Automatic annotation (TrEMBL), chain A:
Part of the ABC transporter complex MalEFGK involved in maltose/maltodextrin import. Probably responsible for the translocation of the substrate across the membrane. The keyword Transmembrane applies. It is found in: Cell membrane. The chain crosses the membrane at residues 16-38, 86-107, 119-144, 150-169, 201-219, 252-273. The lineage of its organism: Bacteria, Pseudomonadati, Pseudomonadota, Alphaproteobacteria, Rhodobacterales. It comes from Gemmobacter lutimaris. This is Maltose/maltodextrin transport system permease protein MalG.
TrEMBL record, chain B:
PANTHER family: BLR7065 PROTEIN (PTHR43005), SPERMIDINE_PUTRESCINE TRANSPORT SYSTEM PERMEASE PROTEIN (PTHR43005:SF1). The lineage of its organism: Bacteria, Pseudomonadati, Pseudomonadota, Alphaproteobacteria, Rhodobacterales. SUPFAM superfamilies: MetI-like. It comes from Gemmobacter lutimaris. This is Sugar ABC transporter permease. GO terms for biological process: transmembrane transport. Belongs to the binding-protein-dependent transport system permease family.
Length: 288, 298
């Protein structure tokens, strides 16, 4: 009997430890973000208060109003940055998806010499650190006159995303049984028709999540954008965040407001595809 | 005139190859060439001034460079290992929860959506010695009444950066390891239990080997953009105080754009690139090995 009670006690202790650990971990994960969101609604006086104000007594939309209010009085042209970010991310994602679909299909369906080497080579290009790549790109783009344009950044981001979209889409096409397309071909489809009418619809959800991954990469990229953009012509939001800093001061409230604007689309998109995304990464990697 | 007939796989891969050549390979060749010249951004004609391996010899004799190099390797080693362990722990904890798991899983992915710049600013704010969350909390709880200089002291700054880096990237490991935990076949785990293994033994000798490929996938994915730490460091400390948090990447950025010494920066950049590519190939190799061990790969 004694050992039974001891066993039960141990089990209960383990459960308490488990829940406490989980709670602590989750607080660490969530608090920093929530702190940013909270501060975007607080007036600067309260953010800077000493001793700190823990229970906010006046929440308002001042920082958002200032942010969208335009360029006057030290304002940052947030809407322009938002538009730049959107144009660049969407276009580069679409192109990277098309290129990635072609490449992923080739890796999933054809056997050829040097396939593994080509695959790792493709991945290795993604490993080049942004800063190191930005130096020669800066020189070339300055010569070609496409620095500080949407086109230059779109081209760069397509190259940045292609290895990853190829990897993910390759994994999804592998999950589509080869026989499916073969059956369609026997029934009189051309290979092209078989692809669009049979294989593509089956892998569609996976391709969409590869797209969202690519979108998030472009949406959040900073190291290259900070060198390849110069003005409101092409500055994206991550670079725009720096507009809230001056040499000695930081406009924390305003920055938090822009941060919230950056996170919301990312949050919604990730939420939509989380399941497919994990499946894509693990299937592509484990069964590849 | 006979038309060159390319195999279909090459046609399909051609767009990817062309775009990567144009945006990655050609610039890399250029940067390789310019690393042998005295190229300065402000003097375009200096691109043709060939100085041989001078830049590389200079880097090899530059104490700042080697400190940054060592610090980068140290940061990556600490961060990647801790992320792996914490991710494993988090995944195991979440997988044991019975209700509300979906919600936990979503919350777990939260940091992945943050732009690294944003993470940098967020932790610059949180570790701010004057208005930051950490110091405010410590002072309100009466644990200390001095403002701890999180980002001003060399050691504390390095700690803060590693904290930020781990905060963003642990979820990559946790999510993928969690996917691995779901995929584990139950038979071997139950067989181990029947054979009298303790929970620790069955975790160590049955579950963990099965998880290894998933851990290597996470490592491989992370190694593809280890340089995201650049954004975080750049924002939080910009390599300061007095170069105590200078990493290879921030050193390169400063040499190139602030000092305008492109040739020298490219020489250092090449060393950083080789380091990254080495990491990537290493983990992809490990992944293939772990995969074939489980008999999954074709």
């Amino acid at each position: 009997m004694a050992s039974n009670a001891e066993h039960r006690l141990r089990k209960r202790l383990l459960r308490i430890a488990h829940l406490t650990g989980l709670f602590l971990a989750m607080s660490l994960i969530c608090l920093p973000g929530l702190w940013i969101v909270l501060n975007s609604f607080r007036p600067t006086v309260e953010i800077m208060a000493k001793p700190p104000v823990w229970i906010p007594n006046s929440l308002n939309l001042d920082h958002y109003r200032a942010m969208f209010g335009g360029v006057g009085e030290g304002g940052v042209p947030v809407l322009t940055y938002f538009r730049n970010s959107l144009i660049i991310s969407v276009t580069s994602t679409l192109v990277a998806l098309l290129v990635g679909m072609a490449g992923g299909y080739a890796f999933a369906r054809y056997r050829f010499k040097g396939k593994a080497a080509l695959f790792v080579g493709l991945m290795a290009t993604r490993a080049v650190p942004g800063v190191a790549l930005s130096l020669p790109l800066f020189i070339i783009m300055a010569r070609a006159g496409i620095i500080d344009t949407h086109f230059g950044l779109i081209l760069t981001y397509v190259a940045l995303n292609v290895p990853f979209t190829v990897w993910l889409i390759d994994g999804f096409f592998r999950q589509v049984p080869r026989e499916l397309a073969e059956a369609a071909e026997i029934d009189g489809c051309t290979r092209w028709q078989a692809f669009w009418k049979v294989e593509f619809p089956v892998a569609r959800a996976g391709i969409a999540s590869a797209g969202i991954f690519a979108f998030l990469t472009s949406w959040n990229e900073y190291a290259l954008a900070s060198q390849l953009t110069r003005s409101v012509n092409s500055k994206t939001m991550p670079v725009g965040l720096l507009d809230f800093t001056s040499q000695f001061t930081l406009n924390w409230g305003g920055m938090c407001a822009l941060a919230v604007l950056m996170i919301i689309p990312a949050l919604v998109l990730t939420f939509l595809v989380q399941k497919h995304l994990i499946a894509g990464l693990t299937f592509g990697g484990v069964k590849g | 005139m006979s038309r060159l007939k390319l195999p279909p796989w090459l046609v399909l891969l051609l767009p990817a190859i062309i775009i990567l050549m144009a945006v990655v390979l050609v610039p890399l060749v250029l940067s390789f060439y310019s690393s042998f010249t005295a190229y300065q951004l402000t003097r375009p004609d200096s691109l043709t001034k060939w100085i041989g391996t001078f830049n590389y010899r200079k880097a090899a004799g530059d104490a700042n460079f080697w400190w940054a190099f060592g610090r980068t390797v140290l940061l990556l080693t600490i961060a990647l290992n801790l992320e792996m362990l914490l991710g494993l722990g988090l995944a195991v904890m979440v997988s044991k929860v019975t209700t509300g798991q979906r919600l936990l899983r979503t919350a777990m992915m939260f940091p992945m959506m943050f732009s690294p710049v944003l993470v940098g600013f967020q932790f610059k704010f949180i570790f701010n010695d004057n208005v930051g969350l950490v110091n405010n909390a410590l002072q309100s709880l009466g644990l200390t009444d001095v403002a701890i200089p999180w980002l001003v002291d060399g050691h504390l700054a390095m700690f803060s950066i590693i904290f930020a880096e781990i905060w963003t990237s642990t979820s990559v490991f946790a999510i993928l390891i969690l996917a691995g935990l779901y995929a584990i076949p139950q038979d071997p785990v139950e067989a181990a239990k029947v054979d009298g293994c303790t929970p620790w033994q069955s975790f160590r000798f049955v579950t963990l080997p099965f998880l290894m490929p998933f851990i290597y996938i996470a490592m491989a994915i992370r190694s593809l953009d280890v340089a995201r730490a650049y954004d975080i460091v750049q924002i939080m400390t910009n390599g300061g105080p007095a170069r105590r948090t200078e990493l290879l990447w921030t050193l390169i950025g400063r040499t190139a754009y602030v000092d305008a010494r492109m040739g020298y920066a490219n020489a250092m950049g090449y060393i950083a690139i080789l380091l990254s590519i080495f990491f990537t190939i290493y983990f992809f190799r490990k992944l293939t090995a772990a995969r074939s061990e489980l008999g999954m790969g074709v």
